[in-house]
Amino acid sequence: MSSTYRVLCLSHDPAIVIDRDWHRPEGAEEAVTEGIEGHPHCDLIIGAFSYPLVEIGCPATRHQPAKLPCCHGGTSWVDRDWLRVLAAGYQTTDPLVEAAVKKAYTTCWPWERLLRLRDELDLQLRETP
To answer: What share of the chain is helix, strand, coil (3-state, %, to 5)?
Structure first.
């Protein structure tokens, strides 16, 4: 399956997709490293789109213009469906699921970051009373 890679800016709420395509993930990674015009200090990620979004990459920490708690040397890729499950876990009231989410390695994907991806991930949000 062929994917198109696009950079997304999570400094906006909801996230915006930067209007430029790459056919290989390395192209999008290089763009983040070199800097995206208009987004000098923004929280940038890379999306692999086979329409819809299928995978998300958090760029290498040293190339990330925003200060994040991530600490990986290369792009860390994760499946869209896993992030949807994680988002559901963040919204749960079930104590067992809450405990599992707290134990999961979610440094790259805190609730605030996932929430900004709600449109791209097609998240179902729990209504607050």
So the answer is: 35, 20, 45
Residue pair 29/56 in contact by the 8 Å Cβ criterion: no
Among 14, 23, 67, residue whose Cα is nearest residue 46:
23
CA proximity to 38, closest of 72, 12, 69: 12
Query: Buried b / exposed e across 53-70, counting CB within 10 Å, b at 16+?
Result: bebbbbbbbebbbeebee
Reported as a single tens digit per residue, the pLDDT across 110-125 is: 999 999 999 999 998 9
- pLDDT digit string (tens) for 50-61? 989 999 999 998
Beta strands in 2-120 (DSSP E): 4-9, 16-17, 44-49, 53-58, 76-79
